[in-house]
Amino acid sequence: MLLPRKGRTQSESFDGERMPYDAFDRLTTTNIRLGNATIRLGFAPGELKLPTADIVSWIEASARAVTTYYGRFPVATLRLLLVPVEAAGVRGGTTWGYRGAAIRLRIGRDTDRPGLKRDWVMVHEMVHLALPDLGNRQAWLSEGLAVYIEPIARVQSGDLSEAEIWAAMMRDMPKGLPQPGDRGLDNTPTWGRRYWGGAMFCLFADVAIRQATANRLGLQHGMRGVLAAGGNHEVDWPVERILTVANKAVGLDVLTRMYREWSNAPVTPDLATLWRDLGLKQDSKDVIAINDDAPLASIRKGITAKIVP
Length: 309
What we know:
Layout: H1 21-24, E1 30-34, E2 37-43, H2 52-70, E3 77-85, E4 90-96, E5 102-108, H3 113-118, H4 121-128, H5 139-156, H6 162-172, H7 191-212, H8 219-228, H9 239-250, H10 254-262, H11 271-278, E6 280-284, E7 287-290, H12 297-304
Parallel strand pairs: 2-3, 3-5
Antiparallel strand pairs: 1-2, 4-5, 6-7
């Protein structure tokens, strides 16, 4: 989840609506090195059952997934604040960039190792670090990219299976379809459109780029291009600049063209046909059959394949 960074003031509360930068900088922190990047890990007051070593391993695994997708960690330095709360599991996160990249996550005191293994929130928030800050109208692109890229990055790093993520996408992607009264992604800030409508945009853009390049390039290459051009979450870019830079990286105008079509009018893509062409058939709620002879099976494989340097 993202919050606007303009006009924010500081708060000493570790669990408020703002990242308490000044308070964080007074904490004792642990540095986690990732190539040329550093994660400064700090804990708000409170107890966690898990030892710090398990927490660090989870953070490192999440950061590896994001690094695998983007080719490098998105920022040079990240403040990462973990706030212990009641219950178990990761209870949500928020990402900021206005005084340097920062993520705050609420983590349940009773969280165990399997709970961290299942967690998707850390990778989701780290993906936000690789996109310039956008206004609220285009929050669907920020959240949609994070929803779409998070599971793919985890497949590429070996943390999830291809079947798992396609089953989840087939189950949840329809939540992003336009409903009556929809006025396009820029003008319909519902939960479904912001998260899953944005993810749907990313999926169809990825497939379109791969079809146009004989599966040599995809959305991943476009987003790597944005990061390579300095477009991380510590800077403000208009959406047009982001899409233009991503287009340049793949040599196509797919993203700009799709944005013109999807941003101010409802677009209802044919998900059923896409799933069929990708070689995906839902046998039950969370189980799918995969057909490698389908017309777009190679594109499906390309989306989750790890890029060879």
